[in-house]
Amino acid sequence: MNIVESLVQNFILISEHAAGNGFGINTNILETNFINIAILVSILVYVGKPFLSSTLQTRQEKVLTSIQEAESKLQQANNKQSTFVYLVIDNIKKDAITTANKVRDSIMEQGELDIARITDTGKVSILATENQIRKQIQQQIAALALKRVTTNLKSEMNSELQSKIIDNSINKLGGQL
C-alpha cells in the first residue's frame, strides 16, 4: 500500500468518526490538556537543550575535524603529486638528454665512417687518375719518339744506309741460327 492511499484512508476514518460525534473545536483548556502539553514541551526544551546543544556541538566539531583532516590529506596528496610530477619530469629530462647524447654520438661515428669512406674513395680515384695520366704521358712520349725516329730515318736514310742495316740484321740472324 502506498503512502498516499494510507493517508487518504486515515483521513476518511477521522472524518467518519467526527461525523458521529460532531466535529468542532474544543475551547476548554483543561479538557484539551493544552497546559500539560505546554509544560511537557517546556520541560523537554529546558532539559533537552543542553544535551541537544552538546550533541550538535560534538557533531559540528567532528564534521570540522573531518573537513580539516580531508583538507590536510588533500594538501599532502597534492604535495606528493607535485613531487611525483617533478620526479617524472626530471626522469624524462634525463632520458631525453641521454637519448640526445646517444644520437649525437651515433651521428658523429657515422660521420667519421663516411669521412673515412669518402677519403679512401678519393685516394683510390686519385691513384686511378694518376695511373691513367702516366699511361697517356708514356703513350705520348712513345708516339713522339717514334715520330722523331721516323722523321730522322726519313731524312737520313738513303739506299746505302738501308743496305747496311739489312746486311747487319741478316748477319745477326744468321749467327744465331
UniProtKB/TrEMBL annotation:
<comment type="similarity">
    <text>Belongs to the ATPase B chain family.</text>
</comment>
<comment type="function">
    <text>F(1)F(0) ATP synthase produces ATP from ADP in the presence of a proton or sodium gradient. F-type ATPases consist of two structural domains, F(1) containing the extramembraneous catalytic core and F(0) containing the membrane proton channel, linked together by a central stalk and a peripheral stalk. During catalysis, ATP synthesis in the catalytic domain of F(1) is coupled via a rotary mechanism of the central stalk subunits to proton translocation.</text>
</comment>
<dbReference type="GO" id="GO:0045259">
    <property type="term" value="C:proton-transporting ATP synthase complex"/>
</dbReference>
<dbReference type="GO" id="GO:0015986">
    <property type="term" value="P:proton motive force-driven ATP synthesis"/>
</dbReference>
<keyword id="KW-0375">Hydrogen ion transport</keyword>
<dbReference type="InterPro" id="IPR002146">
    <property type="entry name" value="ATP_synth_b/b'su_bac/chlpt"/>
</dbReference>
<keyword id="KW-0812">Transmembrane</keyword>
<dbReference type="GO" id="GO:0015078">
    <property type="term" value="F:proton transmembrane transporter activity"/>
</dbReference>
<keyword id="KW-0138">CF(0)</keyword>
<protein>
    <submittedName>
        <fullName>ATP synthase CFO B chain subunit I</fullName>
    </submittedName>
</protein>
<keyword id="KW-0472">Membrane</keyword>
<keyword id="KW-0934">Plastid</keyword>
<keyword id="KW-0066">ATP synthesis</keyword>
<keyword id="KW-1133">Transmembrane helix</keyword>
<dbReference type="Pfam" id="PF00430">
    <property type="entry name" value="ATP-synt_B"/>
</dbReference>
<keyword id="KW-0813">Transport</keyword>
<keyword id="KW-0406">Ion transport</keyword>
